[in-house]
Amino acid sequence: MSAGVFHGGRADDLPLGGGGSMAQLYQQLILDHSRRPHGKGLVEGFDGESFQVNPTCGDQVRLRVELADGATRLGAVNWDGQGCSISQASISVMTDLVTGLPLAEVAALEAAFGELMHSRGKGVDDAVADALGDAIAFEGVSQYPMRVKCALLGWMALKDAVAKAAAGDNSPAHVPEGI
Length: 179
Hints:
Blueprint: E1 4-7, E2 10-13, H1 21-35, E3 48-53, E4 60-68, E5 73-82, H2 85-98, H3 103-117, H4 126-132, H5 145-166
Antiparallel strand pairs: 1-2, 3-4, 4-5
Helix pairs in contact: 1-2, 2-5, 3-4, 3-5
């Protein structure tokens, strides 16, 4: 199942697999998040920042985190970036999912999303699916290796930014010229 979506202002196919109503629901969720992304817009004052680029397609994200509760909880996530609907929606869904959680839970969700993305469309067990919440909508993307990188981009930035924040590195991320 695919439908026209926006990728940098042009129509693109959104690979979600299957033809059932759940696939349509997941497709709509991804489209909604890509059109109205949550957490988008950089905020000054951060504990860690990461800049990531998918060299395959040019998707990019600059993501900032703020830690809370003695650096044990993810207090805030904000970001700016550009790319396909999958990368932008994945970052948006991720922001909703992880903000406010203890860092151990954030790490567990990052691992669970990685497991989902490497399942090649076979999915994950019910407990993992439940923990992922709306992020389970990207299950169909896992069938397309070239698109998995798009869905994982924000998660890699989050992992890097949290690691920097935990290490006390709140220096701005290096963004290459021309990007």
